[in-house]
Amino acid sequence: MRDDGTTDLGDLVMRVARVQRRRFRDLLEPWDLSPHHARALMVICAGDGVRLSDLAERLRIAPRSATEVADALQERGLIERTPDPGDRRAVLLRATDEGRRIREEISAARTADSAELYGRLPAEDQETLARILRALAD
Fold first, then answer.
1. pLDDT tens column, 68-91
2. Among 79, 52, 83, which Cα is nearest to 65's?
3. Which of 14, 67, 79, 129 is deepest in the core (most CB within 10 A)?
4. How far apart are CA 86 and CA 4, in angstroms?
5. Do residues 21 and 39 touch, judged by C-beta distance below 8 A?
6. What is the SS3 assignment for 32?
7. What domains, with CATH codes, occur in the chain?
8. pLDDT tens digit sequence for 29-45
9. Of residues 8, 35, 9, 15, the one with CA closest to residue 106
10. Which of 111-120's residues contact partners 24+ apart within 8 Å by CB, and which partners?
11. Is the Cβ–Cβ distance between 54 and 90 less than 8 Å?
12. Structure letter (DSSP) for residue 61
């Protein structure tokens, strides 16, 4: 809060981000996944084979952490490791049918949750907020 009693925009954005993160964590409970694992599953499902190094880069985590995330997802049967046809020394991460099914369920639940959260705003305000956030993110 500023000296004049108003709230700083940065603080408001951070508060909303915390709300969004908490809601996402709570939303994932039925699948017993962490947000980290869910994001990794989304990245892996979006590609046709993802190297561990690419997963680490896309998630902005250390390669060792990406290995741990991949191990956990593989143990759950959500992804599998397959040889990279272009480099026999490398391994690709691919989603299993179960992984793709779970990812779709999570995506649908997240879409519904976002609609509920942002549905508190009139449609015009949602469009304005989206425009402003895109401008700040670019």
1. 999 999 999 999 999 988 888 889
2. 52
3. 79
4. 61
5. no
6. coil
7. 9-137 (1.10.10.10)
8. 999 999 999 999 999 99
9. 35
10. 113/23, 113/24, 113/27, 117/19, 117/20, 117/23
11. no
12. -
